[in-house]
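in:
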């Protein structure tokens, strides 16, 4: 009961906080993704991160150690892009419930190799193991995402 009272006191004190979107500002969903190669010295796993902006307001972000050890920078960037794409798909679904429809959502990635793998999902000997981890399904299933170099 005391925890519930504490939550209600918090909500009462923060009722005036929120994100302000004036009518003349852009309301586009944009995402950025990046990863480091073998950043953890103990297990050599990479850390990937992504942020999503609605207009110029930051609405979502994440930073997480990847579950597997990547064998290349292209693979780790591709895994990070797949995670970002998954979040963007969820956000697009939620925003659609509020009447906002997005045809093109930009995901900025700084790895040309990861972008090439995502644009051409044909599996080669060096990328076949990525398909087993189901990241290819996430990225190739979302036909409206455009990835650019920033």
């Amino acid at each position: 009961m005391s925890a519930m009272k504490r939550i209600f006191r918090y909500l009462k004190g923060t009722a005036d906080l929120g994100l302000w979107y004036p009518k003349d500002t852009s309301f586009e969903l944009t995402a950025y993704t990046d990863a480091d190669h073998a950043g953890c010295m103990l297990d050599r796993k990479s850390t990937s991160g992504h942020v999503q902006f609605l207009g110029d307001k930051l609405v979502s972000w994440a930073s997480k150690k990847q579950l597997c050890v990547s064998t290349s920078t292209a693979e780790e960037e591709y895994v990070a892009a797949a995670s970002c794409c998954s979040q963007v798909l969820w956000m697009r679904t939620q925003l659609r419930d509020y009447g906002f429809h997005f045809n093109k959502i930009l995901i900025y990635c700084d790895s040309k190799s990861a972008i090439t793998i995502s644009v051409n999902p044909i599996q080669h000997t060096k990328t076949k193991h990525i398909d087993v981890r189901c990241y290819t399904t996430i990225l190739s299933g979302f036909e409206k995402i455009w990835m650019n170099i920033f």
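note: Residues 73-97 form the longest helix (25 residues).
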